[in-house]
Design brief:
This protein has 319 residues and is an all-alpha fold. Among the domains are: 104-190, Annexin V, domain 1, CATH 1.10.220; 203-314, Arf Nucleotide-binding Site Opener,domain 2 (Arf Nucleotide-binding Site Opener, domain 2), CATH 1.10.1000. It is built from 18 helices and no strands. α2 (21-36) packs antiparallel against α3, α8 runs antiparallel to α9 and α17 (285-295) packs across α18. The longest helix is centred in the N-terminal third of the chain and has 27 residues, at 41-67. The protein starts with a helix and ends in a 5-residue tail after the last helix. One of its GO terms (molecular function) is guanyl-nucleotide exchange factor activity. Residues 133-314 form the SEC7 domain. One of its GO terms (biological process) is regulation of ARF protein signal transduction.
Length: 319
């Protein structure tokens, strides 16, 4: 049955190309006669397969022509929507075909703001000769420079007028950018505590459960691999910010920044205990409640139990 359907489809294809059944047989008969007159075997094979290969290439070419989409023939809104899904490399390649469309400022503006959410230059009047395509290249170059040397990267952004020399502007840029190397960023924030202070204030932990808020915090500001003064500074700043975002909850639970600091350290130690393969005897929920309430006596047992469940089910707070 499958072969029968294939023959029907083949005949319809040949008829669509202008070959009737009789005409095709006549051509096939003539091809066979011509083949018999060719003494060379290789020529005979080429002649026998010549028509099939020709029709195959012709059909393929026609299908490609039918399936080819010329974006310039579409409405501009639809063309820009299609091109907006491309990254910078593909958009540059597209500009070789559709130069006017792919070089549109709105497309490059969207690429800039989707990768670097905040830049000081966004809120300024653009200088003469400004283009978002050029800005994208500068932002990309500055990010690569930052990932090699953070200080040189920030200086590059300032020299191009992309960032203002302000800790708050630098903090907003870091907060809204995902292309910066987190190891280099950690070194930079450890040296620039003024930028770190403004970066912490950009977080909004309102109505968030403590372990979830701590995870979000460490996604933007990565925790150091070892305990030390920098980790203590991060937890201290987080504790004060968390309390400032949830004043009603702090009064209800009777928590202070110092108590939140203790809880954060307990959550980090519990995360290491439960996720590390080197720890054979995992801490139980009862042990965690007992140890935590020993350090912070005003915390309810149920609240500490919910903290344990969150780490047990979701995982490390600083992963």
């Amino acid at each position: 049955m499958g072969q029968g359907l294939w023959r029907v489809a083949r005949n319809q294809q040949l008829q669509h190309q202008g070959y009737s059944g009789q005409g095709y047989l006549t051509r096939e008969h003539g091809r066979r006669i011509a083949t018999n007159n060719v003494p060379n075997t290789s020529h005979r094979k080429q002649a026998q397969g010549g028509i099939d290969i020709y029709h195959l290439l012709k059909t393929r070419k026609s299908k490609e022509q039918e399936g080819f989409i010329n974006l310039e023939m579409l409405p501009p809104e639809l063309s820009f929507t299609i091109l907006s899904y491309l990254n910078a490399t593909d958009l540059c390649l597209a500009s070789c075909v559709w130069q006017d469309l792919a070089n549109d400022e709105l497309l490059w503006q969207g690429l800039c703001k989707s990768t670097w959410g905040h830049c000081s230059i966004y809120n300024k009047n653009p200088p003469l000769g400004f283009s978002f395509r050029k800005l994208y290249m500068q932002l990309d170059e500055g990010s690569l420079t930052f990932n090699a040397n953070p200080d040189e990267g920030v200086n590059y952004f300032m020299s191009k007028g992309i960032l203002d020399d302000s800790p708050k502007e630098i903090a907003k840029f870091i907060f809204c950018t995902r292309t910066l190397n987190w190891k280099k960023l950690r070194i930079y924030l450890d040296e620039r505590r003024d930028v770190l202070d403004d970066l912490v204030t950009l977080h909004n932990f309102r109505n968030q459960f403590l372990p979830n808020a701590l995870r979000e915090f460490f996604r933007h500001i990565h925790a150091p691999e070892e305990r030390g003064e920098y980790l203590e500074t991060l937890i201290t700043k987080f504790s004060h910010r968390f309390c400032a975002c949830n004043p009603d909850l702090m009064r209800e639970l009777g928590l202070s920044p110092d108590a939140v600091y203790v809880l954060c350290y307990s959550l980090i130690l519990l995360s290491i205990d439960l996720t590390s393969p080197h720890v054979k005897n995992k801490m139980s929920k009862r042990e965690f409640i007992r140890n935590t309430r020993r350090a912070a006596q005003n915390i309810s047992e149920d609240f500490v139990g919910h903290l344990y469940d969150n780490i047990y089910l979701i995982g490390h707070v600083a992963a």
